[in-house]
Design a protein that fits this description.
two-stranded antiparallel ribbon, single chain, alpha/beta, eight-stranded parallel sheet, globular
């Protein structure tokens, strides 16, 4: 697979990554199968999908344990990205950025992942009660201790507290400017897809100008852009889409023109090309520093996503996708 670099440190990864969260968190629990997910991770590594993206909160903890089963055998082939900064309680999630906690959490992640070093350690969310510089400084000490190779920052959950008239990623950009003074940022992870292109406005250019890698989260729109979801079919109560304003039956129907256009472009590419692969190819085309990280828990979807690196969108294709209607049912 084509290789791309994460940050100025030239950390090489496969051009498409694997988001491991759906294997044990946030999506239909009844469809999660540990052994099947382990096989999917093995399939990813076989295909050159080396960036495995997880977090200690996924499960919580079970996602890292699952990955550890694979890394125990194939650590040298993988680029491990995990996250710190969020604690899962009973029906709530809270931030914890205290330096002592960050260091303990890193040691715990290393044990679960069955490795002695994390390639990319990301701050999941900043703690509003702890200066982000203090949290980042503790993470930098982990690099100096040899437990972590590089640091990354996840975009602020902007939709919940976005001020009227503010750009979506203003808060993230402010955090980046602050932590960059403490220790270099190697990667930023934020949502980017044809139906959520907001990162193109300011966040992606910020990364490109500084040699910072960009991990595109939810590049398939939580599964909507694959064209495999049926409006009105419904979701299990533990599935994040059950509470997502774009996944009501009405809004899924209203947004079908987006999937239809992806399918039209796919047909021009060949009979075997899918809407999902076109959606990922669009993300890949946004810059050499961009790595889409689609979530998957089955080997067949991992293989389909990996195949997107062979889809070459023309200028006409990109122009058509750039004219897609805005997604309806946004958080605003």
């Amino acid at each position: 697979m084509e290789r791309r670099t994460i940050g100025a440190g030239a950390l090489a990864v496969g051009a498409v990554g694997l988001g491991c969260m759906p294997m044990s968190w946030a999506y239909s629990g009844s469809r999660q199968r540990g052994d099947e997910s382990v096989r999917a991770v093995h399939r990813a590594l076989d295909l050159g999908v080396t960036l495995l993206d997880t977090a200690d909160m996924y499960g919580p903890f079970t996602n890292e344990l699952l990955l550890g089963r694979v890394l125990k055998e194939r650590r040298a082939e993988a680029f491990v990205s995990t996250k710190v900064g969020l604690l899962v309680g009973d029906q709530h999630i809270v931030a914890n950025g205290r330096p002592g906690y960050v260091k303990r959490a890193c040691d715990a992640s290393l044990r679960r992942l069955q490795t002695d070093v994390i390639d990319l350690y990301q701050l999941h969310r900043a703690d509003p009660e702890v200066p982000v510089e203090e949290t980042w400084g503790a993470m930098a000490e982990l690099v100096q201790a040899g437990k972590v190779r590089a640091l990354g920052l996840c975009a602020v959950g902007a939709r919940g507290g976005r001020r009227s008239g503010a750009r979506l990623h203003d808060a993230t950009l402010r955090q980046l400017q602050r932590v960059q003074q403490v220790f270099p940022v190697s990667a930023v992870e934020a949502e980017l897809s044809v139906w959520s292109p907001e990162a193109l406005e300011a966040l992606l250019p910020w990364c490109e100008a500084r040699g910072v890698g960009f991990l595109a989260a939810m590049p398939l729109g939580n599964g909507f852009l694959t064209g495999t979801l049926t409006p009105g079919e419904g979701f299990e109560p533990d599935d994040l889409r059950a509470r997502h304003p774009r996944f009501t039956a009405e809004m899924m129907a209203a947004n079908q023109p987006i999937v239809a256009e992806l399918r039209r472009v796919a047909r021009r590419q060949g009979d075997e090309v899918t809407a999902a692969q076109v959606a990922l190819a669009w993300v890949l085309a946004q810059g050499r520093h961009v790595v889409p990280v689609p979530g998957a828990k089955q080997g067949r979807w991992v293989a389909e996503n990996a195949g997107s690196v062979d889809v070459r969108l023309s200028a006409e294709d990109l122009a058509e996708l750039g004219r897609l209607p805005a997604a309806q049912g946004s958080w605003d």
